[in-house]
Amino acid sequence: MERNNGSGESSGAPEFVEQVVDTDDNALVAFVDSSAIVALVDAGDASHGAAEAAYTDLLDQGYKLFTTNHAVAETVELLAIGLGPDVARRWLRDHRLPVYHADEQDEHRARTLVISSRSARGLSFIDAVSLVVMERYSVADAFAVDPDFLSETAWGLTNQDRSR
User: Fold this and answer.
1) The domain containing residue 32 runs over which residues?
2) pLDDT single digits (tens) 123-135
3) 163 vs 52 pLDDT, higher one
4) DSSP letter string over 70-131?
5) How many structural domains comprise the chain?
């Protein structure tokens, strides 16, 4: 079994499954998008109050939250651009979200989704990885404030070409 490195990041899928997904068949699990993290960290964000309330509700309902290594990278970049590199580094050091590390199969499927996407705005690779991981572990709930990501999760992979 692979072990957590103490930073909130698991070093592979076995611990992630044990820690977040497979612990209880009735467990509530939600993916956390970078948009929600940024809204929580940035008190000046228009969605800050709603994000705080949603985060509290998720925890009160017993949700187990996780993100992906791709979403972590996006979060760090967005925080560095919006609030400065010190805030980004502090969040990276202090966050405690379990992190699923996308593997080659996840990335291949995400690439296929991006290429086959018919979305007017285009599907980002990071969002595609998130969708693939959510589907892989049958996670139907996402904590996000980005309307584009939310529309993709509502649309989901069921309407994408899975044959590639």
Assistant:
1) 13-102+138-146
2) 899 999 999 999 9
3) 52
4) HHHHHHHHHHHHHH-HHHHHHHHHH----EE---HHHHHHHHHHHHH---SS---HHHHHHH
5) 1
